[in-house]
Amino acid sequence: xxxxxxxxxxxxxxxxxxxxxxxxxxxxxxxxxxxxxxxxxxxxxxxxxxxxxxxxxxxxxxxxxxxxxxxxxxxxxxxxxxxxxxxxxxxxxxxxxxxxxxxxxxxxxxxxxxxxxxxxxxxxxxxxxxxxxxxxxxxxxxxxxxxxxxxxxxxxxxxxxxxxxxxxxxxxxxxxxxxxxxxxxxxxxxxxxxxxxxxxxxxxxxxxxxxxxxxxxxxxxxxxxxxxxxxxxxxxxxxxxxxxxxxxxxxxxxxxxxxxxxxxxxxxxxxxxxxxxxxxxxxxxxxxxxxxxxxxxxxxxxxxxxxxxxxxxxxxxxxxxxxxxxxxxxxxxxxxxxxxxxxxxxxxxxxxxxxxxxxxxxxxxxxxxxxxxxxxxxxxxxxxxxxxxxxxxxxxxxxxxxxxxxxxxxxxxxxxxxxxxxxxxxxxxxxxxxxxxxxxxxxxxxxxxxxxxxxxxxxxxxxxxxxxxxxxxxxxxxxxxxxxxxxxxxxxxxxxxxxxxxxxxxxxxxx
Length: 511
Prior knowledge:
This protein is mostly helical. It has helices at 7-30, 35-40, 47-58, 61-73, 83-102, 109-150, 157-205, 209-218, 242-262, 264-271, 276-310, 324-331, 337-373, 379-403, 410-419, 422-434, 441-467, 473-480, 485-501, and strands spanning 220-221, 227-228, 437-438, 504-505. It has 19 helices and 4 strands.
């Protein structure tokens, strides 16, 4: 089958674009009198829509492109990082989310200020803004790479980046949180439907169907000629690998707790729900569903590996495994289904990037602009300024995406970026949530910055020693596997430091 898009594919993509525009237009017509209404849709979103929106935020282009690439080039080890998701979702639903809901905050870092002061609030918000800007830029890079492959190089990478960000801004800036929630519902349906369609098509075109995919995965061959089993579930339970399994599970718990409970991008979806109790159920359900969703896309990667064995032309000349799924969609799938999968790829990018832009604009507007420069301004003026912040962060996405063009292995890159900041952020919020300690804000900020500086220095040293210095098993292992300890370290070190530096215990203070 030849590559390129046909009229049917174009019709599918146009229908998807028209649906997004219609939802954005309808949301914009309702207007937003206050910042809370603009960012959280007046807390009016039904809980099932909230669940779909939350999952669409979790399923980014990294999941849709990076996870099949992981399943194609490696094994299913990534799946076990999701084991901790269930415990994390239940913990956040039971502890952190009620903490925010009780205080009726727009930015979750407002709740931190009431316990640990304004300096800590702005530090937490600043951590989030830096982390989310960089991590979400990786998502934009992923979708731009897809568009570049789809166009056969006719659309250069910079143009793909600009087009992606402009499309997202078109409906998010006008409609705010209401537009994002309802477009996320559409995007979630496309994501799951597209993933299932791809796996079914692969199974139908690999000898032996699903059994053939599993057989190929059990006898996979690395580029260096060594054989391995992609479905190495039991291997992780062997005594020599038990430590890795425990690490993946514990890291998954801490990383997902930070993502679900301390990241404005995630929590904002839940705060917009019209029923606080059901919002907690949405989070719990999302934790349970994350494992089968990850398994679906890893199976697509294994299916692509089995397909490439029969059709080696699929991967001829390919140097980046992130390209395998986009290339398969473009060159192997029939027209119509090809358009559906490309719409799903676009949905994966937009479903995570639109909420990222919204949460970044929220955090900057509520935590920095409003208290520092917005004194005396009306809510309407705050909303207008917030729309400008949407555009500003969109431009940052473009700049950083262009700088990250040459990076590959995007799935793990995103996790490594957040590993330096998620831990200290989680540690500060756990201190605010679970204790009544009174700690000076500058001390909390110093603890957060110290943890980040230490782990970043270790990370950069490990990278350099593993790739440029003398061979060392310690630095290589730290660079490839044990960087996950950075999140755990920060999440525990900040509360431990606060326990040592606290002044006294007492009732909650709004200092």
